Amino acid sequence: MKKLYRSRENKVFAGILGGLGEYFDVDPVLLRIGYIFLVAFTAFIPGLIAYIIAIFVVPEKPSIQ
Asked: Which sequence spans correspond to the domains of the chain?
């Protein structure tokens, strides 16, 4: 069973979109570009609030030791 985690390796800011890319097996660069367009066309605030909430809700991927 797959779980959604913030990515440790594939991150630019907090790893949210990198984690989504790993979860859905999609290139995170495409998700980042789509997110930029989404935020730009929704007056910035809703997209930024959603990203900030995701930082606190989505757990960071556990390190493999």
From this structure: 35-60
